[in-house]
Amino acid sequence: MAITRDDVRHTAALARLALSPEEESAFLLELNKILGYVEKIRELDLAGIEPMTHGHAGTGSLRDDAALDGLSQEEALRGAPETDEGHFVVPQVVRPEE
Amino acid sequence: MNLCGMSAHALRDGIAARRFSAEDVVRAFLDRIAAHDGRVHAFLEVHDTEAIAEARRLDEEIARGSEPGPLAGIPIAVKDNICVRGRGTSCASRILSGYAPPYDATVIEKLRAAGAVVLGKTNMDEFAMGSSTENSGFGATRNPWSLEHVPGGSSGGSAAAVALGLAPVALGSDTGGSVRQPGAFCGVAAMKPTYGTVSRRGLIAFASSLDQIGPLGRDVQDCLNLYNVLCGPDPRDATSAPGGHEVPEGALLQGVRGLRVGVPWDWLGEGLHADVEAALGRSVEALRQAGALVGEVSLLDPSYAIAAYYIIATAEASANLARYDGVRYGASARGAEDPAGLYTGTRSEGFGAEVRRRIVLGTYVLSAGYYDAYYLRAQKARRLIRDDFERAFAMADVLLLPTAPTPAFRIGEKTGDPLAMYLSDIFTVPLNLYAGCGINVPAGLSADELPIGMQLLAPRFGEAALFRAAQCLESRLGTLGLAPEPAET
Amino acid sequence: MGAPHESAARGYEPVIGLEVHCQLLTRSKIFCSCSTAFGAPPNSQVCPVCLGHPGVLPVLNRRAVELAVVLGLALGSKIREVSVFARKNYFYPDLPKGYQISQYDLPLCDGGSLQIGTGDARRTIGITRLHLEEDAGKMKHAEDGSGRSLVDLNRCGVPLIEIVTEPDLRTPEEAHDFLERLKQLVQYIGVCDGNMEGGSLRCDANVSVRPRGSEALGTKTEIKNLNSFRNVQRALEHEIRRQIAVLESAGRVEGATLLWDATRDRLQVMRTKEEAHDYRYFPEPDLLPLVLAEEWIAAIRGMVPELPEARRARFVREYALPEYDAGVLTATRELAGFYEAAARRSGDAKLASNWVMTELLGAVKGDTERLRNLPLTPERLGDLLALITSGAISGKIAKAVFEEMAVSGGEPGAIIEACGLSQIVDPDAIRALIAEVLAANAPQVVDYLAGHERVLPHFIGQVMKASRGRANPELTNRLLREALEARRE
Ligand SMILES: [Mg+2]
Ligand SMILES: [Zn+2]
């Protein structure tokens, strides 16, 4: 199951990454090599085996519903590249037909 | 008195007995960093002003007769993927350049409460993705034993700092061997605790189900003391395990008589460096002479673990690294026409090649049509690997094997071949999938004067047996001492 | 108007399913301790966790789980003992982590149903599933024409429950009715304030049409951004009409996501099926599975109040109320609670029902939310009604007292005392009034004595007027006849 150039481009776009044509070629080669290696797991008999998602079993801890002070607006925005009237700023989200 | 050559526990005793002050200790290390770090580049940032102020505060407390904490006055180097409030924390990534977290990681809170002094932040592979610390966005770290060699990774800065005496102890993080393997390459004791025993809160995630913070020191006892400070349940980390897993210092004196040590000989065929093989032989002999029962265990071929690991770790990473979008903090590609443009610009410029490669791989294995073939299969393989370890640990209390198949490789040797780089972790990765604990113990030098590391593995919460066996190896094989001071280049 | 009638006439049947997001009434967010209070300045109810800073971890709010289970139990869902959180991956400026923590293949609740319609038109609408997830932030366009959007993350991480229905709804009216019933339910059981315009109930709709009698489902479209019950109905009417038109012109309906533009009363295509998201769901590694032990579920069961349906039936049974009264009185939990407390206190359930339905609902102008701020308590209303039953005051006086109580919240006895409104039951006092009235109406007395009994009400009216309404009517009637008969002799 080889990954194609289109797959690489599409997947990079899904992850919001732009690749130059040279990078695309390099990634295509490297990812195919890695995926080729990873194919090894097909050799394992995994019938009836439950997937293991977490490093350990058991139940996660829960918190009580108490509201505590977090960051002030000033602290929240401190590291932001651009702010306006207490908001983070992004280029306008383009709505359809606008 | 060479303070920088002393172990952390010796420094602590000296400070408590007022043979020297915490400030003396901190200044000695800061001076040594200033003199030598330029050549190895272990640190990304040194917190000299805060460290001296903190040492003075501790000295005053000690003078007032208050009980110093278990690490009072001990300087510590912290891997740059662990949040220190108000100070640069970048994961060695350009995408986080200028980022200063608004909070301390839980381990940093614990270190401060124990009296430790944060010296600075150490270099690493970007977002902990790598095995050589060459993937840093701010320049590679060099192995203090040989500047042409890598220090290992991803905690290469921490391992190099401890090896060269720039810090007595350090924190690293281990997702697939990132504490143990640089420990081996730099000749220091380096431990990966059982998943869940040390809080991950404030550890910048690479792969959440695999990441664990671990201590590095020049001897096993320093690792143990640090581990005891770091471990414990954290209500702010839902994956942290219930408490009660500290290991009393006395465990180190218990010896290994009757301890069952299993060696997975199946793993140790071709590809194993002759000097590493010899060191393994010496280690087996040392444990046997100390009364351990050394035998063979069989384990699933570790290449399956590598395969599962690079699916699971990259899948988790692809989501964990989605937050770096140039909106709230860090680097930002301004001037885009729409949010997608902002994200794509920020991420393409901010992430290095290896990080982007892994994000693409992780996105691919989760995407529609491939989830079952890759991700789900890897999760099942993970359980198989865990069951395999549990079966082995029914027959052995600890496992012994080399930490890496070879001593440190040369800078640039594997950068063109990602798969070859991944395979250098073949002996460390399986443990992370299983979520047990392990430690690297130095086992002498190769013919080329490069450190060789032996690895002990123990079951989940098997830290007591792990430290007992590690102490035995160390006392019979000896520590390496400080790396030679690098010659001018 | 009404698309359903048209569609019925043309032989088409719409098939509608809803996805409703319902904000849970917790104090703090689902995965961090920030307040959920509404209306704070932008980005002032945030912390590193909900801002998606590096290194943070989610910890689940116990109360959010309990409220979700309460709703699940109220809908008759099966509560899953082990449910799993998953990451839903997509990039959007209101989603700081680049993924939403939601539930996917193992949601908190499976199945369930809700009744819509009344009488013979009653229908059971199936619920597919209920799951917990976090809300996103809020965006708005900058007003300055600079082509920028502003992001406020206060709402980010507010707990939501998503309710997905089976495609059981057949008309826009039914969809509207379902939402009304759901709103009534969530308010009744106290899991959500039910304010759709304020955003605490939000709805997406899936709709397709098929030839009447056909079993196969047509291609569906999804309509988003339905922020009022009216908009749900309007948008569905539009879309059904459009799909029928496509089918009638022998075209094919294309799967798409549509956006309802309420200001322009029209639908816009947001994206077609080809550009559909690939959310790459996978289990959230930062949260272990949510395990609901049997005892916990049992304890939550105890938190579920009597549901409107059951309460209505009980009111009919227990208080012998007409179906209609019981329906009105159980429309909201506030009203039902008020009624029941007043009825118990007064000892006359039917009288209480009349008063609550007319006077009380009149006082709050039909809005039972206002009961919370009404100074009048149900106990005091009950006391007032008891005074009517005991004959201490007339119904007419009671109305005056009620009006005063509704404003001041005062105790009825004290109001009657202060205003001198108590009924005159002293026979001598009434006899004195009668004597005055008869003296002033001599011609009518003659008429009466001549056998014209129809003048009696005239005398009663005069006595009541003289007593300013306070004379006990029955006593007055009896004493008046006595006084008149005495004149015959
Ligand atoms: Mg949802
Ligand atoms: Zn928060």
Keywords:
heterotrimer; B: 489 residues; alpha/beta; Amidase signature (AS) enzymes; eleven-stranded mixed beta sheet; 11 strands; 39% helix; C: 489 residues; alpha+beta; Arc Repressor Mutant, subunit A; 3 domains; ten-stranded mixed beta sheet; three-stranded antiparallel beta sheet; 16 helices; 40% helix; binds magnesium ion; binds zinc ion
How would you portray this structure in words?
The complex is a heterotrimer of chains A (98), B (489) and C (489). In chain A, 34% of the residues lie in helices and 9% in strands. Chain A is an alpha+beta fold. Chain A is flat. The two termini of chain B are 28 Å apart. The mean pLDDT of chain C is 91. The chains are: A alpha+beta (98), B alpha/beta (489), C alpha+beta (489). Chains A and B meet through helix 1, helix 2, strand 1 and strand 3 of A and helix 9, helix 10, helix 11, helix 12 and helix 13 of B. Magnesium ion binds next to loops of chain C. Zinc ion binds next to loops of chain C.
What's this, in brief?
By secondary structure, chain A is an alpha+beta fold. Chain A has 3 helices and 3 strands; from the N terminus they run H-H-E-H-E-E.
Give the arrangement of secondary structure elements.
The complex is a heterotrimer of chains A (98), B (489) and C (489).
Chain A: H1 5-14, H2 21-38, E1 62-63, H3 73-77, E2 83-84, E3 87-91
Antiparallel strand pairs in A: 2-3
Chain B: H1 8-16, H2 22-40, E1 43-46, H3 48-63, E2 75-79, H4 106-113, E3 117-122, H5 156-163, E4 169-173, H6 180-186, E5 189-192, E6 213-217, H7 220-230, E7 260-263, H8 274-289, E8 293-296, H9 302-320, H10 339-350, H11 353-366, H12 371-395, E9 398-402, H13 418-423, H14 429-434, E10 437-445, E11 451-458, H15 463-477
Parallel strand pairs in B: 2-3, 2-4, 7-8, 7-9
Antiparallel strand pairs in B: 1-3, 4-6, 5-6, 5-10, 9-11, 10-11
Helix pairs in contact in B: 2-3, 5-6, 8-15, 9-11, 9-12
Chain C: H1 3-10, E1 12-23, E2 60-61, H2 62-74, E3 78-79, E4 82-83, E5 85-89, E6 99-103, E7 109-110, E8 113-116, E9 123-134, E10 138-141, E11 148-152, E12 159-165, H3 172-188, E13 201-211, E14 221-226, H4 229-248, E15 256-261, E16 266-272, E17 282-283, E18 290-291, H5 294-301, H6 308-319, H7 323-329, H8 333-346, H9 349-363, H10 378-389, H11 395-408, H12 412-419, H13 427-440, H14 442-449, H15 456-466, H16 473-488
Parallel strand pairs in C: 14-15
Antiparallel strand pairs in C: 1-12, 1-13, 3-7, 4-18, 5-6, 5-17, 7-9, 8-9, 9-12, 10-11, 13-14, 15-16
Helix pairs in contact in C: 1-4, 3-4, 6-7, 8-9, 8-10, 10-11, 13-15, 13-16, 15-16
The complex binds magnesium ion and zinc ion.
